[in-house]
Amino acid sequence: MAWRIARQAAFLAAAFLALAGCGPTIEKPVTSLSEIGSDSVVVVGRLELEPPLRPGEQQIRAGTIDPLGVGDQIRDHGMLWFSRSAETPTEKGEVVLNPRLGELYFLPVPKSTPYMVGGYIRTQFNMRLLGPRSVTVDEARIEIPGGLRYDIRPGDKAIYVGTLRLHRDEFNEVVKADFVDEYDAAAAEFKKRFGPGTTLRKAVPRRQSDRRASR
User: Fold this and answer.
1) How far is the CA of 12 from the CAs of 5, 16, 96, 109, in angstroms?
2) Which phi and psi angles does 182 have, rounded to 5°?
3) Coil, strand or helix: which one is 132?
4) Could you give the number of structural domains in the chain?
5) In this predicted model, what pLDDT tens digit does every residue of 81-136 receive, in sequence order?
6) What is the pTM of this model?
């Protein structure tokens, strides 16, 4: 029995990687600037959804065994994919950030992957085990538009990219995405976390997108 459970857990772990859209390693929050090498930068920002998720709006059923904690990565979180090229399809990116919605994040990004190629917030994730080696997932998403190049410079240790505020309609389509500059509050929190001698460079993207306006 224990052998069967171990095999099922291993299979589900592989299935989660393939089906949860989490192939690359999801970057963990930075706790010290000493963790960051010269080839990476700490990206400081916030991801917001307007209107926010309602209580119970996310329907997540990750099965009785969740070896990778996929449920925790989905609940009240978004996925942002980064790549070396602006032409990379969203889920083919090399790096994934998993910020909690509405909270200031401090996450590392390799300087070689400055393009935010897209992302999503899941509103439904239902994983069902159909047999010993068969699994299916029903899901629904709020798609996050990409097409952004973050201003990452060779000497940067940390950059502030603003609050990416997503405005959605009744069909859960993002109709407007803009950046809100809350640098002063973010810089104060940055110094509180990493020390008074640290520097956070403002690099808020300027591009805005409003799909309704372009129709």
Assistant:
1) 10, 6, 21, 28
2) -125, 45
3) coil
4) 1
5) 999 999 999 989 999 999 999 999 999 999 999 999 999 999 998 877 666 666 67
6) 0.82
